[in-house]
Design a protein that fits this description.
Chain A is of the alpha/beta class and 340 residues long. Chain A is built from 13 helices and 12 strands. Chain A has an 8-stranded mixed sheet with strand order 6-7-8-3-9-10-12-11, sandwiched between helices. Chain A has a 4-stranded antiparallel sheet with strand order 2-1-4-5, covered by helices on one side. In chain A, helix 5 crosses helix 7 and helix 7 packs parallel to helix 8. The longest helix of chain A is centred in the middle third of the chain and has 18 residues. With 334 residues, chain B is α/β, with parallel strands linked by helices. In chain B, helix 4 packs parallel to helix 6. The chains are: A alpha/beta (340), B alpha/beta (334). At the A-B interface, helix 8, helix 9, helix 10 and helix 11 of A face helix 7, helix 8, helix 9, helix 10 and helix 11 of B.
């Protein structure tokens, strides 16, 4: 892998409520290289969005990072002052949200909003003509017809797909090193989703942007990502390159996720459903967090939290793969491959 | 179609147009908003115990068609038949009888449950509305059990439920009157994968137990692949292709169906490199001003400048069960 642009080490995040602290993220490790797309998947409530907020230091007032580092290139973003961080957001670290309409100001034209972003970060060094040219160029890149005319339009005059294109244009306008896309296609139809995914992947490869793509849809992740990280209850439970993860998922949670996707191969048979729900942050089990939904759970799983193992680059947090954990009959778990 | 079992529900040349009558202020000014052709000339059958999947992009008229089949929106022209009876203009007792037998599961489970009623009141509401005597009712506890919910929920309010639970209450309420037809609008939208599996398993069980027919409206092709016997594809108010699920998936004859299927993300990373989706250019046109001729011609790679632009395609049969509405389907299948 090329040198990583973003690197997160041992990150812990808690949400404070009264006298209690709820651990939302724990021991997060990730790395994304230039031009690489990292997918983050998991059910709702597993901490995907908390993680993206933590990376940008946009946490709600009761959110506190208690440990760890977020490196952008060689700089620890958790160490720099807020004023410096503010210059970074939007310019070096860009984000695309799920709902473009709430991210665009309805009272200004697209052109004005694109201009303001450039002025805020350009420090007055850019001429009006330069700003205009760059705006038009970006709209062209994201496949907007008649970009010069459309700069004079307001957000409500665009369709959902076009708005998401505008968000991508704004996010990539200042050539950020990192792009975080939080469920960017969830609100779109499949035909538009396919357009946006291929656009996003193309631009990230072309510009060498390190991209973190958050989604709950494994199908989408399979289309756009190079590597995938599976989260559960605030932890990374598995992380691997795209092909290993889909061909040989190791964690029982990842396997269950993949098997619960409805498709024609499963016609007539029951879909695997994961019993129970993601535990709430106030009632996390003490050992492995997946223990009360896992078909293979044993005493050791209830007692101690598994380590984040590295099996030839394929990382997994499960006792069954740790020979020193005392997990019995590990062969049952390791043999329970996808593709039954 | 002789010799086949009579369909449970049927749409015949069904049209639903909105905004045809001047409403509100427009009555005085005489100005008319353009008519929205939400559903245009649609014919579709749903057989007894059959699961029909209805797919298409947003704005294609899927939900309106579903609602029209239940007479929840006024029918502009054409017919809605239920068990062979024309219910398109029934009123009073007749429509009440019909609605006992045909129910809907709405898309947004929270929005379709009154926040001021408890779950048990919500589940008894259909009985009150249809004045079903006490002895013929199914108990709330039993309804909750059918959808695998704990009876402790009976005294809770909808906001206390998770999305999956609210969806189950919606299903339980639709089942209360023992309908013969259930129309489910996006039954899996907004749910996590694990919950989707649960809901689909439940819907399958109910079908077998109660002998219900389903129309499942969804944009998730995975769902219809898994559960539907037949598949209907809609585009801009028209059904463009309908046939047995496997036939439509493997041998789609309409260029829109082909494009739609190719863009569906599959949890298979190998598709990314080898198999580029045939991206549809542009977006779905407005139903206020649908294109002339074949409505898909503005985005279609196969459209010619003659027939496709001027003449609306008629139903043609690929085989005895697989119909397509395309002038050039023979070329498309090539």
């Amino acid at each position: 892998m090329t040198e990583s642009v973003v690197k997160v080490r041992d990150l812990d995040l808690v949400y404070q409520s009264g006298n209690e602290a709820f651990p939302a993220l724990s021991d997060i490790e990730l790395e994304v290289g230039a031009g690489e797309v990292l997918g983050i998947v998991g059910e709702s409530g597993c901490g995907k969005s908390s993680l993206s907020s933590a990376l940008l230091r946009l946490l709600p007032p009761n959110g506190r990072i208690t440990r760890g580092h977020v490196f952008y290139k060689d700089l620890d973003l958790l160490e720099i002052p807020e004023t410096r961080m503010r210059q970074f957001r939007g310019a070096e670290l860009a984000m695309i949200f799920q709902d473009p309409l709430t991210s665009l100001n309805p009272t200004f034209t697209i052109g004005t909003q694109m201009r303001d972003v450039q002025r805020a970060h350009g420090g007055g060094s850019l001429s009006r003509a330069q700003i205009y040219r760059r705006s038009v160029e970006m709209l062209e890149q994201v496949g907007m017809p008649d970009p010069e005319d459309r700069l004079r339009s307001y957000p409500h005059e665009f369709s959902g797909g076009m708005r998401q294109r505008i968000m991508i244009a704004v996010a990539l306008m200042l050539k950020p090193g990192v792009l975080i896309a939080d469920e960017p296609t969830t609100a779109l139809d499949v035909t538009l989703q396919a357009q946006i995914l291929s656009l996003l992947r193309g631009l990230c490869k072309e510009e060498g942007t390190a991209t973190i793509f958050i989604s709950h849809d494994l199908g989408v992740v399979a289309q756009i990502c190079d590597r995938v990280m599976v989260m559960y209850a605030g932890r990374v439970v598995e992380s691997a390159d795209l092909f290993s993860l889909f061909d040989e998922p190791l964690h029982p949670y990842t396997r269950a996720l993949l098997r619960s996707i409805p498709s024609r191969n499963r016609r007539g048979s029951r879909l695997v459903s994961i019993p129970g729900r993601v535990p709430s942050l106030s009632a996390l089990p003490s050992g492995c967090k997946f223990v009360n939904r896992c078909p293979h759970a044993q005493d050791v799983c209830r007692a101690t939290e598994p380590r984040f193992l590295d099996i030839q680059g394929h990382r997994v947090r499960c006792h069954a793969y740790d020979s020193s954990s005392g997990f019995r009959d590990a062969g049952v778990v390791t043999a329970d491959r996808f593709g039954d | 179609m002789e010799g086949k079992k009579a369909p449970r529900a049927e749409a015949r040349d069904l049209c639903v147009h909105f905004g045809q009558r001047a409403a509100g202020f427009a009555k005085f000014t005489g100005r008319r908003a353009p008519v929205v052709h939400a559903v245009d000339d649609v014919s579709l059958e749903i057989g007894p115990r059959e699961v029909v999947g209805l797919v298409g992009e947003s704005g294609s008229g899927k939900t309106t068609l579903g609602k029209a089949l239940l007479r929840l929106v006024p029918v502009t022209s054409g017919q809605v038949l239920f068990d062979g009876d024309d219910v398109s203009h029934s009123r009073g007792d007749q429509i009440r009888q019909f609605r006992r037998q045909a129910q809907m599961i709405f898309q947004d489970p929270h929005a379709s449950l009154s926040p001021r009623l408890t779950i048990s009141q919500l589940l008894e509401e259909p009985y009150r509305i249809h004045r079903i005597p006490e002895e013929d009712r199914t108990s709330v506890a039993h309804l909750l059990e059918t959808v695998e919910l704990s009876s402790e929920l009976a005294n809770k309010y909808p906001h206390e439920l998770s999305g999956g639970q609210a969806r189950r209450v919606g299903i339980a309420r639709a089942l209360a009157l023992h309908p013969k037809l259930l129309i489910a609008d996006e039954p899996t939208a907004g749910l996590d994968v694990s919950a989707i599996g649960n809901i689909l398993n439940l819907m399958n069980d109910i079908k077998d137990e109660y002998g219900i027919s389903y129309l499942i409206i969804t944009h998730d092709i995975g769902v219809v692949e898994y559960i539907a016997d037949r598949l209907a594809v809609m585009y801009l108010g028209n059904v463009v292709e309908v046939g047995p699920t496997e036939r439509v998936l493997d041998d789609a004859a309409h260029p829109y169906t082909r494009a739609l299927l190719s863009t569906v993300p599959k949890p298979d990373p190998r598709r990314k490199d080898g198999h580029a989706p045939s991206l549809l250019p542009g977006e779905i046109p407005s139903p206020k001003n649908p294109p002339s001729g074949c409505r898909f011609h503005t985005r279609c790679a196969y459209s010619d400048n003659g027939l496709c632009r001027t003449v609306m395609p008629k139903q043609e049969w690929v085989d005895e069960s697989h119909a397509v509405y395309c002038h050039r389907w023979r070329t498309v299948r090539g």
